[in-house]
Amino acid sequence: MTSEARYRITAAFMPLLDSALLVTARDMGFAAREEVDLTLVRETSWANIRDRMAVGHFQVAHMLAPMPIACNLGLTPLAARTIAPMALGLGGNAVTVSLPLWEAMAVPGAEPDLSPRAAGDALRKVVATRAASGERSLRLAVVHPHSGHNYELRYWLAACGIDPDRDIEIVILPPPLMADALGSGTIDGYCVGEPWNTAAVQLGTGRIATVKAAIWRSSPEKVLGADARWAGENPEALAALLRALYAAALWCADSANRDELAALLANPANVGRPAEWMLPALSGELRTGATTTAAVADFFVPHARAATFPWKSHALWFYSQMARWGQLAHTAEAAAAARDTYRPDLYRDALKPLGVALPGANLKVEGALQAPTPVGSAGASLVLGPDGFFDGGLFDPDDLDAYLAAQNPALAGRG
């Protein structure tokens, strides 16, 4: 702890590549420049982060983007009211399957190009073949019930004709256990953030089948979750931290810093895995199998496309999936609580003095931008997109009821 620091903040994080903004804010001195003494505590599960936030051990945390919403909607057994004043980048995760499953998927047409449609169609045929022959259902893992991994995996499966509640089994595992579980045969595949997909490839036990950046392009993965009471009582400290994280995002986005960033993340106190495991996600040159690679330039986006802006439309899409999959009953009040969990007003207040590009709107139609598009903003110019869902779907946050009804007719008219 530095005696000069004006603010002292303790943040939890999971050993994932997308903790990069928090790690960089501390280790490259961006937090100190904002007079923030930032202490990072590495945790072993997302549930631990949620529970320790609830009992006051942390003021803020690296959080799954839907988790603050779930906390505020009473979907978790122990939770503080939590806000999300900043996103921690776009993209960053992938779907990895075991080598036997990939071999089975290759027979009906899975390709090594990470196409969600081709991989999903092939997986559906494998699922059908296994069911016809009486084999057990495939078991896929995600990191938490209220995670982008769970919702995007389900979206992908459903759009490819696989019922995620009937045709397969979905289980919960912490990210660092995924590759080992795949290697032991406990699970057949998983959706997780990096470097835990690369880990399975490096260990020779898995194959990357598709990526988040292809399923829902330019979508959020983690946010900064903040205890709402602490944030309300310490607005200047929170604003200083947001400015530090914004500076960290700029630094992480500079390709000249890529090797140094990989080394920072590889530190045993941070992600604690080899730098070589970090570089594929940072460069966008993914090693998908033993002898194959694929280029995904926007696999992890720390700054471009307003990557740190907490869009309320992102919050409402996650809410829509909570309702779609029966985690809550859709009501207008619940939708409003989900929407108001994300706080672009706090983001703008903190960053306005920097003169940086700030979106003029709080919501946008997800999937509407087919190419990079200049948009209205305060401060510097801003370009958003491309974005969108692999199946061509659109999510209009102003027409939530119709979206829910189209995905699940039983939900029509409840909003």
From TrEMBL:
The keyword Cell membrane applies. Its main location: membrane. Keywords: Cell inner membrane, Cell membrane, Membrane, Transport. Gene3D superfamilies: Periplasmic binding protein-like II. Pfam families: NMT1_2 (PF13379). It is found in: Endomembrane system. One of its GO terms (cellular component) is endomembrane system. The keyword ATP-binding does not apply. This is ABC transporter substrate-binding protein. It comes from Nitratireductor mangrovi. The lineage of its organism: Bacteria, Pseudomonadati, Pseudomonadota, Alphaproteobacteria, Hyphomicrobiales.
